[in-house]
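QA checklist item 7 of 12: single-chain prediction sanity check.
[x] sequence parsed
[x] length recorded as 106
[x] structure emitted
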Amino acid sequence: MNFELVKKEVIKFTKDRDWDQFHTPENLAKSISIEAGELLECFQWSPEYDEQAAKEEIADVMNYCILLADKMGISIEDAIMEKIQQNNKKYPIDKSYGSSKKYNKL
């Protein structure tokens, strides 16, 4: 499925319900954090998890990220590609391969 189609459906869902009035950047950022906490809750007491519950929480996080990026005029695709380029510089393969160290500790 095309990401632009997904983005349009998320935005349409919100507009059809007149919820955009509540979707300030601040409220959307809060919602991302809340939903990320709910995703974390899926793994709270055990490495085992309910795949369906985790899938639903991932979708909630992504939906709010799509709405926040749209509200702020940010292209998610461009933002991700820019961040990958930054991370390539911070974490060169020869220094970071197989390591979980932060870039300033490599």
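[x] summary fact logged: DSSP finds five helices and no strands in the chain.
[ ] second reviewer sign-off
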